[in-house]
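Ticket #4471: structure export looks truncated?
Reporter: QA, pipeline team
Priority: medium

Steps to reproduce: submit the single chain below to the structure queue and open the exported record.
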Amino acid sequence: MKITAVDVVLCAQPAVTPAFRWRDGLPGSEPAHTGGWLVLSTDDGHTGYAYSHRGVILADIADRRLRPELLGEDPLQREWLWHRVWELDRIEEMPLYIHGLVDVALWDIAGKAAGLPVHRLLGGYRTAIPAYASTSTFATVREYLDVADQCLELGYPAIKLHAWGDVDRDIALCAALREHVGDSVPLMYDGSAGFDLLDSIKLGRVLSEARYLWYEEPMREFSATAYQRLAEKVDVPLIVAETSDGAHMNTADFIANGSATAVRTSAGLRGGITGAMRIAHLADAFRMRAEVHGGGIVHTHLCMAVPNTTYYESFVPANPVTREEAVDANGLVHAGTTPGIGYEAEWERTGVPAGLEPYTS
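Actual output as written to the record:
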């Protein structure tokens, strides 16, 4: 089998509604934008897809770097091609959200060629997993408590906060939520990189007292040493390396310096499915969890294949709360059965078959 075409299909996407934000000072929902499908075609008739919200950037990188590298190659040589993309990254410094797209499309082809969903091709570990409700940022403590009640009523067994990025307000919120839901509901907190070390310590001590399950990205992850200092000062488990460059290589630094209680893994920010699985196996060697970051169909496959992940992340952007379609009334997400990744429904939803042409130059 050979790759015969490397196309990017651009598609206009409307602004996300209702709009949401992550924390004060940090944009959240996407405005109207141009998305892009990376489409790899083969001489055996199998097509692999991967999607990015940054279609124009994807088209440029595909034109200058990816197409010349991939044409004529065997798509089942995923490991070789994964390393080749890393080689290109040395001169291109690809954005994290672009880096793994080739790998995702190659896994899609492999699953279709084998007649198996990707989670089965990865080995398979489970057929269902609980989903936690991952909030956007709401206006008041009272609204957060109302949202939490709705999430629990809808079947979500656990809740993760994205709050304001104001240490004193966030402390009050985290304590209030624990008191409101009681001790039996697992709670997590994500700082969206809003703090320096001093405020991260201050907040982390409160999270420890409130028995939060994990403390996620209070600081930018440029400095593994800063996280080492944080780990020395707080008892709440730190889950690290969500957005740091270098995939498994950089994750290893966080583990080696003692700052990681658990790590993040994902296809979108850690080098595709291959990179995500490397991180999961690395963490497993240290008996650590590798929690899959973000929802969506690719991460559903990862959740079914990674033994040391415990939850699917289901985003709750608005109040009133609507349960994500993939999550059932018992708060579970189930494994798909479609060969490959199963992007075809999303492909149709974006309107591509209606006449948009592939980007080629």
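Status: closed, not a bug. The export was complete when the record was re-opened. Leaving a note from the reviewer for reference: The chain has a mean pLDDT of 94.
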